[in-house]
Please model this.
Amino acid sequence: MLLQSDKYQKLFATPFFQFHFPEHGPLNENLLAEGQAIMSEEDGVSKSNKGGWHSKGNLFKGKSAPIKVLDALASEAVLNATSRVGAKVDMSTLKLKLFGWMNVNPTGGFNAPHTHPGAHWSGVYYVSQPEIEKGDSGMIEFLDPRSDLPNWRLLDAPPFRIKRKIRPKPGDLILFPSYLMHWVYPNEANGERVTVAFNATFSKTKSSK
Model:
């Protein structure tokens, strides 16, 4: 090789984070009970959910212990990710707001392709993910936000693939920019797929305006 390789950068890359909470067992059991209690009191709302249930309002306004724990985990993930992408802002000048909701997808339930306009980060915490032997049941798929890349497809290089799907497990928390288009495959298992999704939005504190 005649050239020296001085630098390799990923320009305009989309960051994606996957965290795991090892002690998720008790938390997830309590979140499932919390979800059942909420479902008994409300019908939910229709968003991207098809054949499933989506809770109303901001779940993180709840005062129960499992909601407080999940709020803390989500906040930790957001601050960690924001630091790791190299944010230069003084974080003490920002206020973080989380808005969360619970999704329950029974057999056949799925979430249609969508984004989360107006937020910085979006995340999903996995409470229950029924096991399957094969197939795409319950997988979440992300679509490349760049459109002018068809000539790169023939190279089959990971950075230029048109989509990426993963199947997180209970206790996992994934985090991604809110502009990223995504959807969830139909649940083909007998059990319910239960997640808590959330948006994280930063704003300037009053003292820093």
Observations:
- The helical segments are 24-41, 65-84.
- The mean pLDDT is 94.
- The first strand starts at residue 17 and ends at 20.
- Residues 150 and 162 are 9 Å apart (CA to CA).
